[in-house]
Amino acid sequence: MAAVPLTDAAAWDAYVAGHPHATPFHSRRWCEAITKATGHPCHLVTARDAEGALTGILPLHHIRSPLFGQALVASGFAVDGGVLADNDAIAATLAIGAADIAKSLGVPSVELRGGPLPDGDGWHREEGVYAGFARDLAADDDAELLAIPRKQRAEVRKALESGLTITTGTGPQERADHYRVYATSVRNLGTPVFPKALFDAVLDAFGDDADILTVREEGFPLSSVLSLTWRGTVMPYWGGGIADARRLRANELMYFAVMRHARAKGCTRFDFGRSKVGTGPFAYKKNWGFAPQPLVYARWLAPGEKPRDTNPNSAKYRLQVDLWKKLPLWAANRIGPLIARGLG
Questions:
Q1: Parallel, antiparallel, or unpaired: how do β-strands 220-230 and 210-217 relate?
Q2: How large is the greatest C-alpha to C-alpha distance in the chain, in angstroms?
Q3: Range(s) of the chain covered by CATH 3.40.630.30
Q4: Predicted pLDDT at 315
Q5: What CATH code is assigned to 138-267?
Q6: Phi-psi category of 77—alpha, beta or left, where left has phi over 0 and alpha has psi -120 to 50?
Q7: What's the whole-model pTM score?
Q8: Rounded to an integer, what distance in angstroms lies between the CA atom of residue 58 and that of residue 1?
Q9: Which of 126, 219, 252, 283 is the most exposed place for a label (fewest CB within 10 A)?
Q10: Does 1.10.730.10 match the CATH number of domain 6-129+296-308?
């Protein structure tokens, strides 16, 4: 096992393209975009057969933060990733390799967000925290509406009749409006916003496989989401809305419009992403008719070490969250990226 040099980029691309369980978060374009935007280096742990062909990969971003500590994360700023291998034996070998790299770098933790989960010395499984939400898209708008439970369907119908407009694209104005809306949304939740460079890097890396959809009232952005598409699945990934979005049902219109937009692009599945169990977003996605699927992650810890605490709902951060909600947006946008880049 070794870290893959840049000269092997084509092999990385080919392995991900050919593996049935690969996600966008295993891809070189994701990993390089994260490094470009945040400065966190990526170590790609690999396994090879006797002829030198790849049989498994594990991309690890080395997240370093004065507030949250260090970890090797598979992969950075992602909800999935983890080990990608031809079989369980190779997967186990890659997990051992990840722990060995952590030891050599003096990093106290490895965090795997998906893939085969390792057992053994230092590895711990974490379950009951997150759930994922995904289902097939319906054939058309009428069928899509019928797939939504009655109460939420009524809200979507009202949104469709509201006169709000939809724009899509990746140009400078779409990016600026999306970032302003997203930054406002997360500030109102009490969490720091990611650097704008992160969104720009992902959009640039994914090309036609990423775009922004924004709901507007007389041109003014109310809610906006940056989505990825991957093998026929649309993934609304970074989204939010300003305070008026709820009153005007802009979020309802936004997600229904993403479904419609994705169907027009040939997608057949909608991945609503992960949410923490028991939170508002968890309940919201259930209201849309999505069944939660428990997610199990794995973490390796060096002897005597404790896991990083990056959960904004933690009692440890309650005071900071309350104070953050009161910050002027300009201040939150200046300070937030310096903090959020360390969350990974």
A1: antiparallel
A2: 62
A3: 6-129+296-308, 138-267
A4: 65
A5: 3.40.630.30
A6: left
A7: 0.92
A8: 10
A9: 219
A10: no
pLDDT digits (tens, 9 = 90+) for 194-221: 999 999 999 999 999 999 999 999 999 9
The CB-side HSE value for 103 (13 A sphere, CA atoms) comes to: 10
CA distance between the termini of the chain: 24
Strand intervals (E) in 218-330: 220-230, 233-241, 269-276, 293-301
Output the 3-class SS for 216-240. Answer: EECCEEEEEEEEEEECCEEEEEEEE
pLDDT at 325 over 80: no
Instruction: Assess whether pLDDT exceeds 60 at residue 5.
Output: no
- pLDDT value at residue 314: 62
Amino acid at 118: P
In sequence order, what are the residues at sequence separation of 6 or more whose Cβ sits closer than 8 angstroms to the Cβ of residue 134? 233, 269, 270, 271, 272, 290, 293
The residue assigned the tokens 């470009």 is 36
Tokens of 300: 């390796």
CA distances from 222 to 85, 123, 238, 247, 332 (A): 42, 43, 14, 10, 19
Please give the angle made by the CA atoms of 194, 197 and 203, to the nearest 5 degrees: 105
Cα–Cα distance for residue pair 6/264, rounded to 1 Å: 36
Range scoring the smallest mean pLDDT among 105-109, 117-121, 251-255, 284-288:
117-121
SS3 318: helix
pLDDT: which is higher, 25 or 326: 25
Give the Cα separation of 146 and 78 in Å (integer). 31
pLDDT, tens only, 285-318:
999 999 999 999 999 999 988 888 776 666 665 6
Cα separation, 260 vs 243, in Å, equals 25
State how far the Cα of 305 lies from the Cα of 85, in Å rounded to an integer.
28
